[in-house]
Amino acid sequence: MADMLSPVGGISSPDGMMSSLSSLGALSTSLAQGLVKDYAQNELPSESTSRILDAFLNHLPPDSSAVIAEDIISKKDSLKELADHYVSSLLIPLRASGGKTPKAISARPGMELEDIDDIAAEITPQRRDQTRIKADCLARDGNRCLITGAYDINVAVRTLSPAEKENTITSATEAAHIMPFSLAAFGEQQRQSKATIWEVIYHMFPGIRNFSPDDINDPRNILTLNPLLHAEFGKFNMCLEPTTTPNRYHIKKYYNFPSFYEHGLPSDGFVTFTAYDGRYPLPDPNLLSVHAAIGAVLHASGMAENIERILEDFNELRCLAPNGSTEIGMMMLMAF
Fold first, then answer.
1. 6, 14, 164, 331: which is deepest, by most CB within 10 A?
2. How confident is the model at residue 209 (pLDDT cuts 50, 70, 90)?
3. What was the pLDDT predicted at 190?
4. Shortest CA distance to 56 belongs to which of 301, 303, 319, 271?
């Protein structure tokens, strides 16, 4: 086998090349952190730019953090616009409840619009089809909530004897999407904005490029959950962090996770998924990793609370008074 020549004329091994790439990534991250730190020195008290960018740099998987570092370096003169883009085109759409996603989404500074057009041309609106999805995933999950292990009450009433039901912990269950269903539900006027969101997701998390909006109802993207846990999972107050053991996850709870809900959680803080029906794949660890990373960024940046307040205000106030506040500006992104 012919030797590979290094850029400086020496002999390079694959391990050496990987080491060099790792060093280059660390250098880029260090440079990006320095740029953010410098920006923070002159940041207005009302700004969150440095906190948002720091959260993305420090709380994403290494390959995603490297992407953020490159963005920061290439857009060092427009860091506020970059941070605003991350919030409006990623954090708000993923956190938004009730299917509300931004109508006016900013394109990533320097983004190739052809990439958005390609995605827009390929995606098709999806129907929720909740009854079929829930039935398939209940079969896969043994008719139980994946986290609490509680048996689905409707299945219990139909299939268990009175004695069996008496000795079985039951609860309502729901089919919970990991990547929000609203990202694949749109009218023609929303096609471009949804394509922009997906472009940002693929840009930041290249490991899930094989998952498309058309897969939104695939069992890989569905968890069977108790409704209370479903709500907290959707708010990113609870995440499932993959471990080195296949299908085993650490249950990550943030400070605003209601303590009352903890009584039904595994005492060791971990859960292992088991497929009871091989026709339907278990939830994808890559998708759960993305969900966990976004949860970490939301809470580290302080945007979890900000977006929660924005959503509450949006639901209460359909008429917005243009008083120039950051909250009102962000609320306007939610209008549709």
1. 331
2. very high
3. 73
4. 301
